[in-house]
Amino acid sequence: MSDGTLRQALAYAASGWPVLPCLPGAKIPATAHGYQDATTDEQKITGWFGPHPDWNLAIGTGAPGPDVLDVDEHGPAGNGYPAFGRLRDAGLLDGAASYVSTPSGGLHAYFTGSHQRNGHLPEHHLDFRSSGGYVLAPPSRIGGQPYQLINQPGGHGGLDWTAVTRLLQPQRQPLPPRQPQVPGPDIGHLARWVAAQGEGNRNAGLFWAANRALDTDPAADLSPLADAARQAGLPGPEITRTLNSARRTSGTRPRHPDRQPEVS
Fold first, then answer.
1. Is residue 181 scored above 80 in pLDDT?
2. Statement: residue 104 has pLDDT above 60
3. Whose CA is closest to 246, among 189, 203, 201?
4. Residue 66 has pLDDT above 70, yes or no
5. So what's the pLDDT on residue 67?
6. 72 in a domain, yes or no?
7. CA-CA distance, 114 to 242, in Å (whole number)?
8. How far apart are CA 91 and CA 79, in angstroms?
9. Which of 167, 135, 3, 121 is nearest to 62 (CA)?
10. Distance CA 155, CA 110 (A)
């Protein structure tokens, strides 16, 4: 590079964009404090690029500098142009002031600067440079290839990075809260209740408890209830008939699972 770098740096500064030097052929700042050293001071800029015309030129992003959308090109690994197209189709790029091609085949889109945070969408190969960032600018070079101005639409708008992320990476809708599992009746509790029934209520009690268990699990093992009914003094054949009746009517009867049989 020649003194053209100095002229361009002064031109950026004259438009209100702070600049800083980077090492030759690299993106590494040549000053101690990196982007924090970006300035519009003509004397300081001349002191940097006058003696070092081979240094790369960077612009500090975020107001008063520009915001820049960086569209990466990674070859077979993917590139940001499909996402860029979606943003363009959605009208989010209408305010772009200029477009600069990058040495890798990517693109920088310049917008009015803001105080937004820097952003990164790796899945879409996009980066956003705003407050606390910087980008190399023409006539900088990487690997001998220059950054070049390719188009100046002349827009004066900004880029809403929140809108960009909302379009390209929408938040997944939260799953509805899981309904708590309502525990079914404990077969042991039902069995103890059946065993405590007195004569005259043993059959009805067994029938109610069996239905209560079947409400929760149609394939429930009712043998603990049968044992409890025998303990209460209910004859075996009657237990069998009662449990069979409960199984036959399960799923077809009106259910009142929490209503116990009335005791006379």
1. no
2. yes
3. 203
4. yes
5. 98
6. yes
7. 79
8. 20
9. 135
10. 9
- pLDDT confidence of residue 193: 87
Residue 180 has pLDDT above 60, yes or no: no
Encoded tokens for 101: 């091609």
AA identity, residue 240: T
Query: For 211-222, what is each residue's pLDDT tens digit?
Result: 888 888 888 888
Alpha-carbon span 36 to 19, nearest angstrom: 10
C-alpha closest to that of 206 among 187, 225, 223, 184: 225
- Is the C-alpha dihedral spanning 77, 81, 84, 90 positive or negative? negative
Statement to judge: residues 22 and 146 lie in one domain: yes
Q: Is the pLDDT of residue 14 over 70?
A: yes
Q: Answer with the one of 168, 201, 223 that is the final residue of a domain.
A: 168
Residue labelled with tokens 């929408």: 170
Residues 161 and 227 in one domain: no
Residue reference for tokens 């009690």? 205
Give the pTM.
0.65
Structural domain that includes position 79: 4-168
CA distance 255 to 252: 9
